[in-house]
From TrEMBL:
Pfam families: DeoRC (PF00455), HTH_DeoR (PF08220)
Keywords assigned: Transcription, Transcription regulation
Gene3D superfamilies registered for this protein in UniProt: Winged helix-like DNA-binding domain superfamily/Winged helix DNA-binding domain
Domain HTH deoR-type: start-end pairs: 48-103
Native species: Paenibacillus larvae subsp. pulvifaciens
PROSITE patterns linked: HTH_DEOR_2 (PS51000)
UniProt-recorded Gene Ontology molecular function terms: DNA-binding transcription factor activity
Keyword Transcription regulation: yes
Official protein name in the record: HTH deoR-type domain-containing protein
SUPFAM superfamilies attached to this UniProt entry: NagB/RpiA/CoA transferase-like (SSF100950), Winged helix' DNA-binding domain (SSF46785)
Keyword Transcription regulation: yes
């Protein structure tokens, strides 16, 4: 991070120098003794972070960007653009290539049959959820299939801290060099998850930026509720997280009759576009923000 901060400071100082030179030039031309602000070209007047956000937006739209085109667009030198791309690469938001950059590669933890309905529905939802993650966030992931898929969609060089109560998730995270992984410990269930009091006690040591729930944390008609330890674990996670996010397809949301320990504590649901307007309204009344992902 030291080198990243140094590059950001260098870029900021370069912008200031260019601005000051233009002020001095105008002052000399007008024979003034004070500096007069001069409207600068968009690339110079723009904050560095604002420019980088636009670069990422262009990359997400076009799948790749080129140094020369970005330099012309923002009226900056190609070296300045290269520094921006280097900083964004260190954040895991892109991968530098010769003459430009492309979207970062994604790790895959599971494979779906080609053209399968599960692939068509879940991949865009999981990709969207991974795209919400930010540099150095602390998140919680369980052991559901959607959590394992999400691990595979996290950019390979995005620094994160991940807490999990799943041995499967921990084994997958073990190979990720940029991710610091904590396993809660505790009594291991047959499905490889730890939800007992010991696991909950360790989890309470953390405060999460985002906690991701799955459809397995819901129950309704024809589906038995989880045991008391699982219920207590769900409630505790919701209390320890800033963002409580449910990832599920619209078929997995029995909205009229669903139950969930932190049902009224959910902040977001990431799903597909299959929800009706009435269902949207019901969820919004609960204070839940809906992210409808196009398949």
């Amino acid at each position: 991070m030291f080198f990243s901060e140094r590059r950001e400071n260098e870029a900021r100082e370069q912008d200031k120098c260019l601005y000051r030179r233009r002020c001095i030039l105008l002052s000399n031309c007008c024979k003034l003794k004070t500096l007069v602000p001069v409207p600068l070209k968009r690339g110079i007047a723009m904050f560095s972070e604002e420019r980088r956000e636009q670069i990422v937006a262009l990359l997400n739209k076009n799948k790749k960007v080129y140094v020369k085109e970005l330099a012309e667009r923002f009226h900056l030198s190609m070296d300045s653009i290269r520094r921006d791309l280097t900083i964004l690469e260190e954040r895991g938001l892109l991968r530098k290539t010769h003459g430009g950059a492309m979207l970062p590669p994604r790790f895959k933890t599971r494979s779906y049959p080609a053209g399968s309905y599960a692939r068509e529905q879940m991949e865009p939802i999981v990709e969207y959820a991974s795209g919400l993650l930010r540099n150095k966030e602390v998140i919680f992931l369980g052991g559901a299939n959607v959590h394992l898929d999400m691990i595979g969609s996290i950019p390979h060089n995005l620094p994160l801290t991940v807490v999990t109560n799943s041995t499967k998730a921990a084994e997958t995270l073990r190979t990720r060099k940029k991710i610091t992984t904590y396993v809660t410990g505790g009594k291991l269930s047959q499905c490889g998850v730890m939800d007992d009091l010991l696991a909950q006690g360790i989890t309470r040591l953390f405060t999460f930026d985002r906690c991701f729930f799955s459809a397995s944390d819901l129950w309704g008609p024809g589906k038995e509720p989880p045991g008391p330890e699982k219920l207590q674990s769900i409630r505790m996670l919701a209390e320890r997280a800033h963002k409580k996010i449910l990832i599920a397809t619209h078929q997995e949301l029995p909205i009229e009759s669903w139950q969930m320990s932190p049902a009224d504590l959910l902040s977001d649901i990431i799903t597909d576009e299959g929800l009706t307007k009435e269902q949207h309204h019901q969820l919004n009344q609960r204070g839940i923000h809906i992210h409808a992902v196009s398949l």
